[in-house]
Amino acid sequence: MALCLAASLIERKGFDPLDQLGRYTAWYREGYMSSTGSCFDIENTVRRALDRFARTGKSYCGSVDSLGGSASRPWPTTSTKATGDREAPAA
């Protein structure tokens, strides 16, 4: 998913939720950009959100009821955007 996010941000030159969700769905269903050629270790909340996106095409399709570990994954991207720095902050 990190590779999908990076590719989307670079190719779209910014945040494009429909592009990101399309890439995440391709990762989930087809193994797009996966190091193993297939999706592995997908959380139920993420799987349900991607299934909902595939059905509805709506970009904000997930639940915030149970974020689990996924809430921390985009932190370097969001903090870099918020501060305007070109490099991610040190952990």
Give a short synopsis of this structure.
The chain is an all-alpha fold and 91 residues long. Helices cover 51% and strands 0% of the residues.
Textual characterization of the structure:
The chain is mainly alpha-helical and 91 residues long. The protein has one domain. It contains 4 helices and no strands. Helix 1 packs antiparallel against helix 2 and helix 2 packs across helix 3. The chain is globular. The two termini are 20 Å apart.
Keyphrases for this structure?
single chain, 91 residues, 4 helices, 51% helix, globular
Secondary-structure map with pairings?
Elements: H1 2-11, H2 17-30, H3 44-56, H4 75-83
Q: Give the helices and strands as they follow along the chain.
A: HHHH
Helix content: 40-55%
- In DSSP terms (H or I, runs of 4 or more residues), the helix count works out at 4
Q: Given the helix and strand composition, which structural class is it?
A: mainly alpha
Number of domains: 1
What integer is the average pLDDT? 80
Q: Mind summarizing the main beta sheet?
A: none
What is the oligomeric state here?
single chain
- Low confidence ranges: none
Strand % is under 5%
What's the number of extended β-strand segments?
0
Radius of gyration: 13 Å
Please tell me what the overall shape is: globular
Q: What gap, in angstroms, lies between the N and C termini?
A: 20 Å
